[in-house]
Design brief:
Blueprint: H1 2-19, E1 21-26, E2 37-40, E3 45-48, E4 54-56, E5 66-69, E6 76-78, H2 80-85, E7 89-92, E8 102-103, E9 111-112, E10 119-123, H3 125-131, H4 136-141, E11 147-149, E12 157-160, E13 163-164, E14 169-172, E15 175-176, E16 198-205, H5 209-212, E17 219-225, E18 237-247, E19 252-262, E20 266-277, E21 280-281, E22 294-299, E23 302-307, E24 313-314, E25 319-330, E26 336-347, E27 350-351, E28 359-360, E29 363-364, E30 366-371, E31 375-386, E32 394-412, E33 417-438, E34 442-463, E35 468-471, E36 478-495, E37 498-514, E38 526-542, E39 548-559, H6 563-567, E40 570-573, E41 576-579, E42 587-600, E43 604-623, E44 631-634, E45 637-663, E46 667-681, E47 687-689, E48 697-706, E49 709-718, E50 738-739, E51 745-746, E52 750-760, E53 765-772, E54 792-800
Parallel strand pairs: 1-7, 14-17, 41-45
Antiparallel strand pairs: 1-4, 2-3, 2-5, 5-6, 8-9, 10-16, 11-12, 12-13, 14-15, 16-17, 18-19, 18-54, 19-20, 20-25, 21-24, 22-23, 25-26, 26-31, 27-30, 28-29, 30-32, 31-32, 32-33, 33-34, 34-35, 34-36, 36-37, 37-38, 38-39, 39-42, 40-41, 42-43, 43-45, 44-45, 45-46, 46-47, 46-48, 48-49, 49-52, 50-51, ...
């Protein structure tokens, strides 16, 4: 009898546990739906379904409002009891359009896009799978709203609303990636992220300083990596995928594998990727100005010009990269959630192609100019406690340690001296965030943050003939940069149709740098900055009906001077050298934007966002002096002395527009258009176009999806930027721009036609093929130092288990 009772209790508990596992299916096909977001409004927690459409919702027991949503499907809001009555099987109806998508990361706290005044775009996993981007920079370009500049294959510098580099912020699993040597020139740090290991990507357009502090002027790019999944049964849950990819334009050979394994309380993800890229081939049809018919080789102890057999090959641009990720999750009970992540990325050396195009006295300026291995490592611990108290309903603590390593290696043509400058940054951060619901209509988010960056910079030179090394100037001073902040954001929702949000942040930042005057006689040996910034935001979202959405937002942002601004020494362009300036203060941005979205008859969706940003006290490069001299000999050439100064006001304004039409039979037509104008005040009071505001650009896609087929024909395009509308500092860069009929630099208009197709051969085995740049155009995206790929054939195989 005792054994029978125990058996009944076991079966009963098993039934209860099983009944708490929800299954989400497509209402038309009854197929399970993966990556459905399930959110409890009471606890602000969220979970997502696995590839079988299942998720354990035991933590939501008793909840009155549970949101069940996935992009492309109609939102359902049910109570736990209603889900229980349906036997824990929920069917979602496909929805052509949704103005209220769920996001989980870009604002640090989970919120609906329908409640956020800023414009937010999500790059869906399905679109990433079809587009199959090579790098994380290319992944951002999939959105059609982020412009990507490249000076080398190992690169990718996003431009958003006329801002770039250290005026944009990157986050990885909620951790700030920007460090104290993020520069004003184009950067390539985003390629350290693995697109295969990225589960979700979101871009918030406009200021994000209230949440993220310094640098979030033009936008925030938030990457969520693959998350561990728990098992709903007593058995271990194992799933994963493998990908291989080949592309013809650079003989790419890529291999990726990841595996997820989980139990009731423990879960893990392991991911590894490796890329091998040869020199990149550009297209046949376009400006001859982009052709470089030679490269430099060291032959018998002498630099020689070697004619290329194929002038379309951009030599040197080859490089390799490897990434590894390990994430772990432990959930001992309903209240606590512990997550740990380890990330590592390392590239080989890769050539700075635009620098190698420079000419001096009729000969190549450089025999070598390359970046040394770029390394990034991050340890991240995130602890979440969900329990209703007087001060919070949810508490999150995030601790992170990152290490960045990069170097620059160059040697003048016919010189035996190779210069090597290496940088290492140790970055530490700590965040504590709280969420508290104040009744039915109000929610307050608040928190505190501490950041510390230690910068170590070294310089040396090598005599390549005899192998001797000697000290040389470093790029940066030995420095510490730190930031401390408190912030709060308040959401008031008087009705389902109207939301108000406001936030404020106080940020204090410090910089201590010590300069080495061995090589340059600076009139200072130290720099100390001790200052603060106050930023805020206020916005509203109004839904006049289910098919309308109107939002307006005013926000301020700031960028604190970092080590790159204050202390760097480098040659910005031929005949100019930038020296340190220890007297910088923060720059401030003031941004207004308004957006409207409308769905017509569940067939057509249009959206428009207009914005205007003023950047005051902007840090820009200006002519300067060193010990009373306006020029010095630098790297064997007399160069104008310049420094970064708070010396300008910049304005950026523009329009983002989108259109999407859904036709019967799985046909979809969409288009995104981005128009931006940037202006920057010069020394003499005149105005120059902004360097980081690209010409009008966009994407138009025609998509067909049916069953196991997903086919897309699309065009990418950019308008011309004539010489008169180029930034003054860009007009002299003949090594990267084409020449017009008057011999002046300009950026020609271009377009590409492209084809992508994915087909599920078997249940777990898929094929992805594509042809990019079908007409083999030779083109160079604005401000890029190398041409984009010519006609490019892509083959990718993927296996899921």
């Amino acid at each position: 009898m005792r054994n029978i009772l125990l058996l009944c209790l076991f079966l009963g508990s098993s039934t209860i546990a099983y009944s708490q596992t929800i299954t989400i299916k497509d209402a038309n096909t009854s197929e399970p739906i993966e990556m459905v977001t399930i959110v409890s409004e009471e606890t602000n927690e969220f979970i997502s379904t696995d590839k079988e459409g299942k998720a354990d919702i035991s933590t939501f027991s008793g909840a009155q409002k549970i949101q069940i949503q996935r992009l492309g499907y109609q939102l359902k809001v049910l109570s736990y009891e209603e889900i229980k009555v349906s036997d824990f099987i929920i069917k979602l109806k496909a929805n052509n359009f949704n103005l209220n998508e769920v996001i989980v990361s870009a604002t640090r706290w989970r919120q609906n896009t329908g409640d956020i005044p800023s414009k937010v775009t999500t790059i869906s996993p399905e679109e990433v799978e079809l587009q199959n981007p090579q790098t994380a920079a290319d992944l951002l370009a999939v959105s059609g709203k982020v412009y990507i500049q490249k000076s080398q294959q190992g690169g990718g510098s996003p431009m958003i609303r006329g801002f770039a580099t250290n005026r944009l912020l990157y986050t990885v699993d909620g951790v700030r990636m920007n460090n104290a040597i993020f520069r004003g020139g184009n950067i390539q740090n985003v390629i350290s992220l693995d697109p295969f290991a990225t589960e979700n990507t979101e871009v918030v357009f406009g200021p994000g300083s209230v949440i993220y502090g310094s640098d979030a002027v033009g936008g925030v790019m938030s990457f969520q990596t693959l998350s561990p999944k728990f098992s709903d049964s007593g058995e271990v849950l194992i799933s994963g995928k493998m990908n291989t990819r080949f592309s013809s334009a650079n003989n790419e050979k890529t291999l990726h594998a990841d595996v997820k394994y989980g139990w009731k309380k423990w879960a893990f993800v392991t991911s590894a990727s490796r890329w091998d890229y040869d020199h990149l081939r550009q297209g046949r049809n376009g400006p001859d100005d982009y052709l470089k018919t030679y490269h430099v080789e060291r032959i018998e102890g002498e630099d020689r010009l070697v004619e290329q057999e194929d002038p379309l090959i951009q030599n040197p641009t080859a490089y390799t990269q490897k990434n590894f990720m390990q994430r772990a999750r432990f959930q001992p009970n309903e209240s606590w959630d512990f997550q740990y992540g380890f990330h590592y990325s390392e590239t080989s050396d890769y050539g700075r192609y635009d620098r190698l195009n420079r000419v001096m006295n009729g000969e190549p300026r450089y025999a070598e100019w390359k970046y040394g291995p770029q390394k990034w490592m991050m340890n991240n611990l995130n602890i979440t406690h969900s329990k209703e108290t007087k001060t919070f309903d949810q508490l999150s603590i995030r601790l992170a340690q990152q290490q960045f390593e990069e170097s620059r290696i160059d040697r003048n043509f016919q010189s035996e001296i190779r210069r090597i400058r290496a940088e290492k940054v140790d970055a530490y951060s700590a965040n504590i965030d709280f969420i508290k619901k104040l009744g039915e209509k109000s929610t307050v988010f608040y928190g505190a943050e501490y950041i510390l960056n230690n910068v170590e910079s070294n310089g040396k030179q090598e005599n390549i003939l005899i192998g001797d090394f000697a000290s040389s100037p470093s790029r940066y001073p030995q420095s510490n940069w730190s930031s401390m902040a408190v912030y709060t954001n308040y959401e008031f929702k008087p009705s389902d149709d109207f939301t108000l949000q406001g936030g404020i942040r106080y940020n204090h930042f410090l910089l201590d740098a010590e300069f080495d005057t061995t090589f340059y006689s600076f009139p200072f040996t130290k720099a100390n900055i001790n200052n603060g910034a106050l930023t805020g935001s206020l916005g509203m979202v109004y839904h006049p009906g289910d098919s309308w959405s109107v939002n307006a937002n005013f926000a301020t942002a700031f960028r604190a001077p970092n080590v790159d601004d204050v202390g760097k020494i480098f040659d910005s362009e031929p005949g100019a050298v930038v020296i340190p300036n220890p007297n910088l203060t923060a720059e401030y941005a003031y941004n207004w934007d308004v957006g409207i979205a409308k769905v017509f008859n569940d067939f057509l969706k249009v959206d428009f966002t207009a914005y205007y940003t003023i950047l005051n006290n902007a840090m820009v490069r200006r002519n300067s002096q060193l010990n009373g001299q306006d020029s010095i000999i630098f790297d064997g050439e007399r160069s104008q002395v310049q420094s970064i100064q708070n010396a300008a006001i910049a304005n950026v304004y523009g329009l983002q527009a989108g259109m999407e039409m859904k036709f019967p039979g799985g046909i979809n037509l969409s288009s995104d258009l981005n128009y931006q104008i940037g202006e920057e005040e010069l020394d003499d009071g005149s105005v120059s176009p902004s360097r980081h505001a690209p010409p009008l650009f966009g994407t138009t896609r025609l998509n067909f999806k049916s069953g196991d087929w997903n086919v897309q024909l699309y065009a990418n395009y950019q308008a011309e930027r004539p010489h008169s509308e180029m930034a003054v500092e860009e007009r002299r860069k003949t090594e990267i721009y084409a020449l017009d009929e008057n011999g002046n630099t300009y950026a020609p208009a271009w377009y590409t036609l492209n084809f992508k197709m994915s087909y599920q051969l078997l249940e777990d085995f898929g094929l992805n093929v594509g042809v990019e740049n079908l007409t083999d155009q030779r083109y160079r995206p604005y401000s890029s130092g190398m041409s984009a790929p010519g006609r490019n054939f892509i083959l990718s195989l993927n296996f899921k288990f």
